[in-house]
Specification:
Helix content: 55-70%
Number of strands: 5
Number of domains: 2
Strand content: 5-15%
Shape: rod-shaped
Strand order of the largest sheet: 3-4-5
Distance between the termini: 58 Å
Radius of gyration: 29 Å
């Protein structure tokens, strides 16, 4: 059950939220399609409704995913979210679909943050850890570590940038870009220095060692990876 919640609660539902009467609702058709995309065996069914003495009605719905069954209930309400006495068929049908969506949200995680009044799902612990690491690299101006981090996490960078507080996202991207550009400049300078050594009539291996020894391990790794094939071969021959 925990794996279902972990999977569905991380899905961003923001493009499928409908606002009606000042209340937010998740599209029931999209919710079903999204759950079945991840769990094709998902089933659901309406349960017997409960009628109260004031003639208002409470609908109930049951959802089963991967063998886990849960139910939820919801009063039949109007556009002001007030219970309707003697609701008609359309009112009941609308309430059933909302109840189904709520059942998926509160029991299995899809869109649960909507019911908490949040604008987006909470990041997973792993993503939060990556974001904290990225903040630390930028704050401490660790350009080469940042370069490696962005290479390793390239598919997640948009998500990580979006985690920045509102109004700070652009500056955060700029700070990352500036650090990255600094490593680009340092790499170009290092490659130019290495090329200057190897093109001498009598190349000096100690000069190559001196240039490389002044670099941080990650810097050296990126510089050597940035060499063209000819330069890399010349450096390898000098260091052999």
């Amino acid at each position: 059950m925990s794996s279902i919640w972990e999977t569905l609660s991380q899905i961003d539902c923001s493009d499928h939220i409908e606002d009606k009467g000042g209340f937010s609702y998740l599209s029931w058709a999209w919710a079903i399609a999204m759950v079945r995309q991840h769990y094709p065996d998902m089933t659901h069914r309406p349960l017997k409704s409960k009628r109260y003495p004031d003639e208002t009605l409470e609908v109930r719905h049951e959802v089963t995913i991967n063998g886990h069954t849960a139910m939820c209930w919801l009063p039949v309400t109007d556009y002001r979210n007030k219970a309707i006495p003697n609701p008609n068929a359309m009112d009941i049908n609308t309430a059933r679909m909302r109840c189904l969506t709520k059942c998926i949200a509160v029991n299995f995680g899809l869109g649960f943050y909507v019911y908490q009044g949040e604008s987006s799902p909470a990041p997973s612990p792993a993503l939060q850890e990556d974001y904290d690491q990225l903040l630390s690299l930028v704050a401490n101006k660790k350009g080469w570590e940042l370069r490696k981090f962005t290479a390793d996490k390239s598919s997640q960078m948009d998500e990580l940038f979006n985690m920045a507080p509102q109004g700070h996202k652009t500056k955060f991207k700029d700070d990352v870009r500036k650090l990255y550009q600094q490593t680009n400049t340092a790499m170009k300078d290092a490659l130019a220095a290495l090329e200057g050594v190897v093109v001498d009539e009598v190349p000096d291996p100690s000069a190559v060692h001196e240039i490389l020894d002044e670099m941080e391990p990650l810097e050296r790794e990126f510089v050597l990876a940035g060499c063209n094939e000819i330069l890399r071969k010349q450096i390898e021959e000098l260091l052999a």
